[in-house]
Amino acid sequence: MSITVFLDKDGTLLEDVPYNVDPERIRLAPSADRALRILAEHDCDVVVVSNQSGVARGLFRESALEAVREHISSLCAGLHVHLAGFYYCPHLPDGDVPEYAIECDCRKPADGMLRRAAEDLGLSLEDAWMVGDILDDIEAGNHAGCRTVLIDNGNETEWRLPARRWPSVVVRDLESAARVIVGEVEVVPPSHSLAHRVEDGARSVA
Ligand SMILES: [Mg+2]
Ligand SMILES: [Zn+2]
Fold first, then answer.
1. Range of the domain at 46
2. Which residue, 11, 185, 198, 203, could crosslink 133 as a Cys pair with Cβ 3.0–4.6 Å?
3. E strand residue ranges, the chain
4. CATH number of the domain residue 55 falls in
5. How many domains are contained in the chain?
6. What is the whole-number distance in angstroms between the Cα of residue 108 and the centre of ligand 2?
7. Buried (b) or exposed (e) across 84-102, using 16+ Cβ within 10 A?
8. Residue 141 lies in a domain
């Protein structure tokens, strides 16, 4: 049975270019090409799950995300990875575009995108992994029942770490995440790697 890997887009799969929808400015994150090759060798399916509040903020139209999906799909295909799904949340409660300025169940840290993908693709969330560069990604994955990998690349800055935001594993980059997921590297509980992030009292109980 193939493993499903949910990937956050910006700062995880791709270099983070805020609110970018121009395919020409889309670049894979450092080591993402090696990561995708490893996942391909192990027949993993990749599903992108991305908050795209730029839609609700009026920075670009929802339709602009189709070109983004296509470009990512072709980047993946070039590395023999099947992009099994591309899910995004266009909402933001205090956004500027009324139809998108709503409380929704899909904006991470909620897990609506993962649940929708599980339904659409008929996959088991318990057998899936969620990889992201901030703790909202981890919370979404945990809530859905996935195992979770935090890429500690400097993009998380708040480090609020109640139990629901605690990752299964912490790694430096996407290649390391892939090696953990395919079982090449042992899963080490992240208590040591995160200890320096947790200031006194910052780790509360959910
Ligand atoms: Mg991100
Ligand atoms: Zn949403």
1. 4-195
2. 11
3. 4-7, 45-51, 83-89, 129-132, 147-151, 169-171
4. 3.40.50.1000
5. 1
6. 8
7. bbbbbbbbbeebebeebbe
8. yes
In degrees, rounded to 5, the angle at the alpha carbon of residue 45 between the alpha carbons of residues 50 and 144 is: 55
Rg (CA), the chain: 16
- Rounded Cα distance between 92 and 104, Å, is 8
pLDDT in tens, the chain (206 residues): 689 999 999 999 999 999 999 999 999 999 999 999 999 999 999 999 999 999 999 999 999 999 999 999 999 999 999 999 999 999 999 999 999 999 999 999 999 999 999 999 999 999 999 999 999 999 999 999 999 999 999 999 999 889 999 999 999 999 999 999 999 988 777 776 776 676 544 444 33
Where are any strands of DSSP class E within 20-82?
A: 45-51
User: Residue 130 pairs with which residues in a beta bridge?
Assistant: 6, 148
Instruction: Report the amino acid identity of residue 117.
Output: A
Domain annotation covers residue 128:
yes
To the query of whether residue 152 is one of the catalytic residues in this protein, the response is: no
| Catalytic annotation, pick one of 8, 45, 111, 133 | 8
Evaluate whether residue 32 is within a structural domain. yes
